[in-house]
Amino acid sequence: MEQDTLYQRQVIDRARAPAHAGSLDGATHVGEGTNPMCGDRVRVGLSLTDGGTVTAVRHETRGCAICIASADMMAGLAEGRSALELGTLSRRFGEMVRTGEGAEQVGELGVFAPLHQHRSRIRCATLPWTALMEALDGSKDR
Amino acid sequence: MDLSPAALADPIDALRHLRADFPILNEAVHGKPLVFLDSAASAQKPVQVIDAMSRTMRTQYANVHRGLHWMSERTTDACEAVRDQVAGLIGAPAREEIIFTRNSTEAINLVAHSFGSLIRPGQAVVISEMEHHANLVPWQMLRDRAGVELRVAPITDAGELELDALGRLLSDGKVALVAVTHMSNVLGTVTPARQIADMAHAAGARVLFDGSQMVVHRRVDVREIGADFYVFTGHKLYGPTGIGVLWGRRELLEAMPPFLGGGDMISTVRFEGSTWANLPHKFEAGTPAIIETIGLGAAISYIESIGFDAIAAHEAALTDHALRRLAEVPGLRVIGAPADRGGVISFTMDDVHPHDIATLLDRNGIAIRAGHHCAEPLMRRLGVSATARASFGLYTTREEVDTLAATLEQIRSLFV
């Protein structure tokens, strides 16, 4: 069988056993992303210090392997970063999955670079970031 | 045609020679031969259809119904001949009852607007739980616009219409129309049309069947099944996109107001008011899809040259084979088990998301559909957010189904 470079072990293992799944007790911010085309949904809860640093992130993801793995890697990367840094990372990640370029700028998220060849699946990987940005946006502060 | 004893004994192999008519089947996807198992979404086109459309544009094209010149008259004749073909295809008593639309969706919207305008507030329309959004949303819009009640007939876990429940929904005599699929695009269920029509009529209701999937696979006779309206689309029937059909009983179509206004649908036009053309033109405003209509005609000629006996036998044998092979894939669950079914099979495989299944199959040249299949309420009823769906055309082979099953097993081993 042809196995797509998109479905590397790293992605599949992360989707099967996510490290940051679940709801976050005492989350200061929450956000949600939904894809009406496929019914996938990502909920993100996070804690933000007064200085604007993310201290903890959890995600509840109903979706495909790409979506779950992307959410979980995002959650791991977000901890310890500022909202500003995450905004930049989100833009770079979005650019990379659309063009296949710039994988070196996004750390382990570079594993999703082959998505640019699967236009209909790009949204699966960016959905968690939509939820994260909504959470950081503060519009749904608890 | 292959008349060898083996081919005659095997209805799947009996159509194998027809693959040569579909140029696209020679294409490779990701370096693999295309295995096209998404015909329920839209079927591939035989060279007979492609050539007929190309020939029209090259040699015999002009606007229809209005030109006084040779080209217009010939093109009008060619289009109107397709109306006769469609009437023959579905057993319509009169050619004037055949209305060309853009697709099934537009045909249902036509009925929802036009017949719908005759339904009084307090009356009801019944649909089923397994309708495509095309046979659901137009009725919701009618409900919200006109105060018509929308009732939903449930299905069983096997994916069959619950006829007792349908009877109860009809029992107060308020139902004006029952609008249900003739074959589910998700479950493959073939509905008992005659029984549904008899129940509807006994309760004073009219009945519309969405035949988008059904006309592809079996001979349909609108009189035999007792339909009042029947709709289908050309592109699933090996024809082009942009051409669909509404058939309705003449007395209903005559009582209904026009849907779209414009050229071709009028008798006289004055600023003070206009009068409408006779059927079928009353419902065909504007320049029609001329080239696509001729393409539909070529598609009908093509399938009638094969014959529905051979097409239905191929599909039944192939579907049986597919259900057997898929049952052997560990963790695979076929959704629904209707007794009477067509060549559309929805499934899930353990916790592997249907989109992951579809992408990995695609890398192996296998095209299926994954998602909610334009039937979100049905997904909810089935308790799944999405399914993978393999669907067959007359060109589908046993080997393609085997390739699907083998590749699914390999995909599963990646995830489990």
Q: Key terms for this structure?
A:
heterodimer, A: 142 residues, alpha+beta, Sufe protein. Chain: A, three-stranded antiparallel beta sheet, 4 helices, 18% strand, globular, B: 416 residues, alpha/beta, Aspartate Aminotransferase, domain 1, Aspartate Aminotransferase, domain 2, 2 domains, seven-stranded mixed beta sheet, four-stranded antiparallel beta sheet, 38% helix, iron-sulfur cluster binding (chain A), NIF_FeS_clus_asmbl_NifU_N (chain A), SUF system NifU family Fe-S cluster assembly protein (chain A), iron ion binding (chain A)
What does this structure look like?
The complex is a heterodimer of chains A (142) and B (416). Chain A is an alpha+beta fold and 142 residues long. Chain A has a single domain (9-137), classed as Sufe protein. Chain: A (Alpha-Beta Complex), CATH 3.90.1010.10. Chain A has four helices and three strands, in the order αβββααα. In chain A, helix 3 (83-99) runs antiparallel to helix 4 (122-137). The longest helix of chain A has 17 residues, at 83-99. By secondary structure, chain B is α/β, with parallel strands linked by helices. Chain B folds into two domains: 5-33 and 307-415, Aspartate Aminotransferase, domain 1 (Alpha-Beta Complex); 51-304, Aspartate Aminotransferase, domain 2 (3-Layer(aba) Sandwich), CATH 3.40.640. Chain B is 38% helix and 17% strand. Chain B has 14 helices and 17 strands. In chain B, the strands form five sheets. Chain B has a seven-stranded mixed beta sheet with strand order 4-10-9-8-7-5-6, sandwiched between helices. In chain B, a hairpin with a 2-residue loop joins strand 1 (28-29) and strand 2. The termini of chain B are far apart. The model of chain B has no long low-confidence stretch (mean pLDDT 96). Chain A binds chain B through residues 1-4, 6-7, 12, 16, 37-40, 62-67, 118, 121, 124, and chain B through 30-32, 352-356, 359-360, 363-364, 370-372, 376, 379, 385-386, 407, 410-411, 414-415.
